[in-house]
Amino acid sequence: MTLIEKFWESVPTAWFRTRARIRHTAAEQFGLTVEQFQVLRRIRHGIDSVSAIAADKNASRPAVSAAVDGLVTRGLVARQTDEQDRRHIHLTLTTPAGQTALSAIYEQTDAWLAQRLTTLTPVEQEQLQTGLELLKKIMEISEQ
């Protein structure tokens, strides 16, 4: 098997299973849709408007707006009018509900992943660490 074939066999599967676990935790533990979880993540990372989130996700503004409406109703997100430009609405995670939900989802997913990593020997864990660093390196090469 070539390195490229191994890449296509491994990376999408790992990513799919990890995302599935996050979605499961978000839905089962917190009643969040995938869309709502993705909106929370982006707000946490500083993307604070429906338009910016829609552009970042390559999603429609109405879909993002619907997810935001649900989060606002549940008290996880707040809308704040920009003082300089009243047409602009900033989205923020409410404290503590939005932050708590997002942190708990990540903590549970980290525990799930940590449990899987314990099945590797210390040498295999080092090899995985090196492999992940190399994968990151090649993916950061800019397109010329």
Give structural notes.
The protein is 69% helix and 7% strand. The protein is mostly helical. It has a single domain, classed as Arc Repressor Mutant, subunit A (Orthogonal Bundle). It has a two-stranded antiparallel ribbon. The longest helix is centred in the first third of the chain and has 28 residues, at 3-30.
**Count of helical segments?**
6
Q: Hey, roughly how much beta strand do the residues contain?
A: 5-15%
What would you call the structural class?
mainly alpha
The total number of structural domains is: 1
CATH topology: Arc Repressor Mutant, subunit A
Rough shape?
A: globular
Uncertain spans: none
* CATH architecture tag: Orthogonal Bundle
Largest sheet report? 2 strands, antiparallel
**CATH C-level label:** Mainly Alpha
Helix content: 55-70%
